[in-house]
């Protein structure tokens, strides 16, 4: 299976080289696409250098900080255009441990979307404060309940999609950027009746650099869920065709913890 790991970056210069080294140590056959938003710290130049050194590394440069959602959409389009069988979403800050990549690759053989889940057996967020756990946990319960998504972690950003899924979603109609982007995608994938599998991950705090998480991103996610439930936009509940036959399954992790 030809796979692409899409990594959006904004000021991740210290993480990039060690991250790519770790990724290739677990999954040497995969390609990596870095989508950099003209990071002031030189991440884009560093990515370009790594592209020259390694034929498995590719880079998209964008003019400025345009958000995580559009970075992934460009990455997905690249994956489809270049005939990858599956494409990953992965953060650059080591929160998404590369040791789980083989689990995803195994799971995607029999699924259309694999989600690295913090909220199933074997998953977790051991370093998080009570407040952060509360926000993330309640956000997930809210989205599950409001939209009827039987996924334990629908804001997770460590994922693997089959190309057929990316081709079937009208990517240009997605406007969410942060956690809402993740919820919107999983909701749309469900609506198409695709098979979704959750695999457990222990989510770590970023190694170095600054978080781009903001209150705005949290509110965007709540706003999206409400609009999808009660509004009329693409993927909203009013446009639902009652075909939520996509099935969910939990997988035991095979990677050492
Ligand atoms: N290209 C691009 N990448 C972004 C943008 N915003 C965030 N990123 C990247 O997206 C990934 C996730 O961002 P983080 O800052 O780690 O956000 P988070 O994981 O929600 O927050 P923390 O858990 O606090 O780290 C990282 O690889 C960032 O560099 C953006 O506007 N453009
Ligand atoms: Mg992070």
What does this protein look like?
There is one protein chain. By secondary structure, the chain is α/β, with parallel strands linked by helices. An 8-stranded mixed sheet has the order 3-2-1-4-6-5-7-8, sandwiched between helices. Helix 1 packs parallel to helix 2 (43-53), helix 5 (130-147) runs parallel beside helix 8 (215-230) and helix 7 packs parallel to helix 8. It has helices spanning 13-26, 43-53, 68-81, 101-108, 130-147, 163-168, 179-191, 215-230; strands at residues 3-9, 31-36, 57-61, 86-89, 113-117, 159-162, 196-200, 248-250. Mean pLDDT is 90; it is low at 238-245.
How would the blueprint of this fold be written?
Blueprint: E1 3-9, H1 13-26, E2 31-36, H2 43-53, E3 57-61, H3 68-81, E4 86-89, H4 101-108, E5 113-117, H5 130-147, E6 159-162, H6 163-168, H7 179-191, E7 196-200, H8 215-230, E8 248-250
Parallel strand pairs: 1-2, 1-4, 2-3, 5-7, 7-8
Antiparallel strand pairs: 4-6, 5-6
Helix pairs in contact: 1-2, 5-8, 7-8
The chain binds guanosine-5'-triphosphate and magnesium ion (MG).
Helix content: 25-40%
Number of strands: 8
Poorly predicted sequence stretches spanning 5 or more consecutive residues: 238-245
Order of helices and strands: EHEHEHEHEHEHHEHE
Average pLDDT number: 90
Strand order of the largest sheet: 3-2-1-4-6-5-7-8
Mind summarizing the main beta sheet? 8 strands, mixed
Tell me the β content: 15-25%
Short description, anyone?
The protein is α/β, with parallel strands linked by helices and 257 residues long.
């Amino acid at each position: 299976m030809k796979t692409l790991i899409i990594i959006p970056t904004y000021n991740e210069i210290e993480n990039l080289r060690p991250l790519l080294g770790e990724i290739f140590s677990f999954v040497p056959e995969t390609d990596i696409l870095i989508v950099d938003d003209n990071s002031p710290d030189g991440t884009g130049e560093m990515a370009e250098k790594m592209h020259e050194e390694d034929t498995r590394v590719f880079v998209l440069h964008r003019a400025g900080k345009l958000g995580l959602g559009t970075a992934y959409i460009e990455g997905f389009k690249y994956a489809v255009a270049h005939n990858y069988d599956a494409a990953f979403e992965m953060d650059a800050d080591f929160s998404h441990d590369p040791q789980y990549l083989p689990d995803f690759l195994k799971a995607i053989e029999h699924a259309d979307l694999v989600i690295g889940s913090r909220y199933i057996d074997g998953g977790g967020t051991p370093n998080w404060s009570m407040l952060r756990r509360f926000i993330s946990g309640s956000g997930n319960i809210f989205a599950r309940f409001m939209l009827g998504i039987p996924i334990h972690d629908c804001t997770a950003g460590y994922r693997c999609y089959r190309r057929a899924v990316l081709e079937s979603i009208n990517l240009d109609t997605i406007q969410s950027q942060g956690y809402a982007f993740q919820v919107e995608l999983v909701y749309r994938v469900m609506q198409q009746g695709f098979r979704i599998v959750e695999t457990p991950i222990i989510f770590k705090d970023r190694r170095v650099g600054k978080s781009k998480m903001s209150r705005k991103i949290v509110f965007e996610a709540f706003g999206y869920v409400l609009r999808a439930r009660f509004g009329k936009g693409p993927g909203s509940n009013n446009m639902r065709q009652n075909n939520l036959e996509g099935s969910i399954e939990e997988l035991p992790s095979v990677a050492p913890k």
